[in-house]
Design brief:
It comes from Larkinella bovis. The protein is of the alpha/beta class. The chain folds into three domains: 89 residues, Rossmann fold, CATH 3.40.50.720; 205 residues, UDP-N-acetylmuramoyl-L-alanine:D-glutamate ligase, CATH 3.40.1190; 135 residues, Mur ligase, C-terminal domain (Protein-Tyrosine Phosphatase, Chain A). Helices cover 36% and strands 22% of the residues. It is built from 17 helices and 20 strands. The strands form three sheets. A nine-stranded mixed β-sheet has the order 7-8-6-9-10-11-12-13-14. Strand 4, helix 4 and strand 5 form a beta-alpha-beta unit. The longest helix is centred in the middle third of the chain and has 16 residues. It is globular. The protein starts with 5 loop residues before the first strand and ends with a helix. The mean pLDDT is 95.
Length: 446
């Protein structure tokens, strides 16, 4: 163990917090973990076995404010009283990503965007893994980055990075960065100012060098304008659905083209224009680190996406049910509806995050025959869509939502759970919402 480096306080005792605590302890810090909620038993046991002191159900300010440095869970907002007091005392606050990046020499591939980052991260990881590279998966997905740095010696990490994680990253450097899109999301955490959120996403570029690579979606006006302002000194590689950038990645005549590699889009498992962007970006990133064409082809053809992202759940009397619970903002729903080829019974609702629904109006008119509002407060959805859909129904019960969806559908239709909202009004998280939806469908099928 190194000499004592000072007092590291970890705020939050979930996957990232416990991993950060273990790594900090191993690197010579005195560590104290504090969580206002109760810890999961598995995490409690890990901390006890490592003899790391912790508290749960409270934040003891006197002890926390003794910190030399604080690792903050991305779920804790900047306006939280304990964070404000730490700021007042100029105690540095970092993310688990920042901490872990200090202690690895691996090449880091960071992926962010308002939508699509999980799919793109998983696909990039799959392509590198298929190539036989020694690679870890971390960030906003999978196991703790910090704990993997402690326990493994990967040559690469593929990191899904949320804006909340980027906010507390200062020195971490990505060797390859992907920015898929920026659309209004989480504005409640950014003083309802879109530019603040844009600034957060662009933090993925900080510390990158001229020989590092930035992959971005060319048709995003927000990204283009910000690049024009910032003029980052990095290698820029665009992804496009309408142009043929060289070098870069694009669609042409039904083929996914990434520099000298191409494959028919119809052969690939991910559908919809948004997934074309994701596949182009992931393939380009894999190519940048040396994955060869035959491996790219094999990886793309064998990829299976994570749950809750346009996930087929089952069919009842000719009606398809699709779980897209991860669609917690309007842009995600746009992509989901855009990919639908049959009439849709749309299930939406939850905890609103400052949504504006204008961009959905055309698609809803074209594809949605009924809207089922699943949430405690559906006023905003009802107010906007009551004159835009033939049928509108409200409920706070997922089983009733599924039953009503089947009742309103005809054979060949699709019942799509794509909420556009956070899940915390009725569910623990988006996974819980998606799982309850799937269970409700399965009960209807039996």
């Amino acid at each position: 163990m190194d000499v004592n480096r000072g007092m590291m306080v970890i705020l939050g005792g979930g996957e990232s917090g416990v991993g950060a605590a273990l790594l900090a302890r191993a690197k010579g810090y005195t560590v104290f973990l504090s969580d206002r909620s109760l810890l999961q038993e598995s995490y409690r046991q890990v901390l006890e076995q490592a003899e790391i002191p912790f508290e749960e159900g409270q934040h003891t300010e006197e002890r926390i404010l003794q910190a030399t440095e604080v690792v903050k869970s991305p779920g804790i907002p900047e306006k939280a009283p304990i964070i404000q007091k730490l700021r007042q005392q100029n105690i540095p606050i970092i993310s688990e990503i920042e901490l872990a990046a200090r202690y690895t020499n691996a090449r880091l591939i960071g992926i962010t965007g308002s939508n699509g980052k999980t799919t793109t991260t998983l696909l990039t990881y799959h392509l590198l893994k298929t190539a036989g590279l020694n690679v870890g998966l971390a960030g906003n997905i999978g196991d703790s980055f910090a704990r993997q740095v402690l326990e493994h010696s990967f040559d690469y990490y593929v990191l899904e990075l949320s804006s909340f994680q980027l906010d507390d990253m200062n020195q971490a450097r990505m060797n390859v960065a992907i920015l898929l899109n920026i659309t209004p999301d989480h504005l409640d955490r950014y003083e309802y100012r879109f530019q603040n959120y844009v600034n957060s996403k662009f933090r993925i570029l900080q510390n990158m060098r001229p020989d590092d690579t930035f992959i971005y979606y060319q048709e995003s006006a927000v990204i283009r304008e910000e690049l024009d302002r910032k003029k980052p000194d990095v290698r820029l590689l665009p992804v496009s659905l309408i142009d043929t950038p060289q070098p870069g990645a694009y669609l042409k005549d039904g083929f996914l083209v990434v520099n000298d590699f191409e494959i028919p889009l119809a052969d690939l498992p991910l559908k919809g224009k948004h997934n074309a962007i994701n596949m182009l970006a992931a393939t380009l990133a894999a190519q940048v680190v040396g994955v060869q064409p035959d491996v790219l082809r094999a990886g793309l053809l064998t990829f299976r996406n994570a749950a809750h992202r346009l996930e087929p759940v089952g069919e009842i009397r000719g009606v398809q049910f699709i779980n897209d619970s991860k669609a917690t903002n309007v842009d995600s729903v746009y992509y989901a509806l855009e990919s639908m080829t049959s009439p849709v019974i749309w299930i939406a609702g939850g905890l609103d995050k400052g949504n504006e629904y204008d961009q959905l109006a055309g698609l809803v008119k074209e594809k949605v025959k009924a809207l089922i509002c699943l949430g405690k407060d559906n006023q905003k959805l009802v107010r906007y869509f009551s004159d835009r859909v033939p049928t509108l129904f409200e409920t706070q019960d997922v089983n009733e939502a599924v039953a009503k969806g089947l009742e309103l559908a005809s054979p060949g239709d699709t019942v799509l759970l794509s909420p556009a909202c956070a899940s915390f009004d009725l569910f623990r998280n988006y996974e819980d919402r998606g799982n309850q939806f799937k269970e409700a469908v399965k009960r209807m099928m039996s």
